[in-house]
Amino acid sequence: MVYLFEDKDDPMRYLAGTAHKHTIGYYEGHPTWRVPVNEAFIPYHIGVFASTGGGKSYLTRLQLIPMFLNAGFDVLVLDWKGRDYAPYFKKQNVISISEIALDPETVVSYLCKKMGNFGYLSQQAKGTVTQALEEFVYSESWRGLSVNEFRKVFYTSMIQALNPRNLTSGKSFEDQQRFERGYRRLRDSDIQNILGTLTANDILQLVRERKIIVIDMKKTGRDEKLSVFLTLARYLMDLMQNDEDLNLALVIDEGPQYCPFNPDSIQKETTDMIIDLCALGRSHKLCVCILSQGMAGEIGINAAVRRNLNTQFVGKIHPLDINEAGNWLSPFNIDPKFLLSLPPGHFYFMGNMNLSPIPLLITFEVK
Ligand SMILES: Nc1ncnc2c1ncn2[C@@H]1O[C@H](COP(=O)(O)OP(=O)(O)OP(=O)(O)O)[C@@H](O)[C@H]1O
Ligand SMILES: [Mg+2]
Q: Which region among 102-116, 236-250, 307-321 has the lowest average model confidence (pLDDT)?
């Protein structure tokens, strides 16, 4: 039998029954047909895929985040560019990455980079000056200082450490020159970035109090952003390993920065961490929600991570992703070529949060 639905009929309520009250967007062409979701699968993780300008960040901000909050999940957003979320939330819901305390290892590599690596050819080629810097940073004597106090303590400690009478190796004059040259490059804003005091525990407490916290990451480089992510993620892992339920959605925009197709160095660490978060998250109510311009291959996210995202929103895709999109949509007789020209803010909703047996084309209004 075939039913014909008119606008006022809302077939979506048949999908939802009485059990499911949370929705996401509406069925394309029918603004009154809100699309129900199966909230039980929120901790089975979510992938949002569309090429640039496809509306991923808008979908997340205007539809996914309100849905998480309604379903009783607090939300922690990592705003890579500081442009997609931070400007849209109240001040009390936004913290700058520079307010977060970095671990010493990160501080050393950050300061080295900002001081031109003291003229050494690579960070691996560590000289006396780098060693003195490490000593200083690991002493933790600089925590909690103002920028000017930091400058004073830093400069004095370094010059003293490089003083020829204290040196057991190295060439004192050259070392001091290297340091002075590096020091002149160090700006107040660079120093500000390492003087943060908020710990992962502090941040989670803020998330609990305020329900949503956006971390504005615009001011720092890639490695510092990823280090902050690792600091937070390690803390969440600890809680879950102690069998705590998190009731938390972690929104990771610009997914390929954290878990690229073929990760190495720090991205290898963040990719492995995301896989672990996904695995433990399923049973501890953590939802990992990853946004990416590409799905598979070089433009996509790591395949092992992708396999953990059990609900997908797929908007306008890049032609390179036509095969991957075909894998998902062809079984339902949806031609993946159709995805090349989807307008912004239109997504196929599929996977285990979708109550319908077939993918649904959804959209939403921009307020
Ligand atoms: N539902 C919608 N209806 C109409 N326009 C929309 C909708 N959603 C998004 N847009 C438009 O598309 C633009 C791009 O959206 P958005 O910034 O979310 O893209 P994105 O996929 O996150 O891109 P990028 O990968 O570059 O971050 C927005 O500025 C907005 O004007
Ligand atoms: Mg975006």
A: 102-116
> SS3 for 150?
helix
Characterize the bridge pairing of strands 248-252 and 311-314.
unpaired
Q: How far, in Å, from the CA of 253 to the mean position of ligand 2?
A: 7
In a domain, 66, yes or no: yes
- Is 7 exposed, middle or buried (CB count within 10 Å of its CB: 0-12, 13-18, 19+)? exposed
Contacts of 104 (CB under 8 A, 6+ apart): 137, 138, 140
Top mutation candidate among 62, 85, 257, 366 for ligand 1, by most atoms within 8 Å of CB: 366
Give the CATH number of the domain where residue 86 resides: 3.40.50.300
Instruction: Examine the domain organization and report whether 173 and 242 are in the same domain.
Output: no
pLDDT tens, position by position, 251-294: 999 999 999 999 988 899 999 999 999 999 999 999 999 999 99
| Structural domain total, the chain | 2
Average pLDDT rounded to a whole number, residues 32-48? 97
Q: Does residue 217 sit in the same domain as residue 252?
A: yes
Distance 349 CA to ligand 1 centre (A): 17
The reply to whether 82 and 142 lie within a common domain is no
Residue 1 located in a structural domain: no
Residue to substitute in 28, 57, 316 for testing ligand 1 pocket (most ligand atoms within 8 angstroms of CB): 57
What's the whole-number average pLDDT of the chain?
A: 93
Question: CA-based diameter of the chain, in Å?
Answer: 93
Residue 316 CA to ligand 1 centre (angstroms): 11
Pocket of ligand 1 (CB under 6 A): 50, 52-58, 293, 344-345, 363-364, 366
- Report whether pLDDT(58) > 70: yes
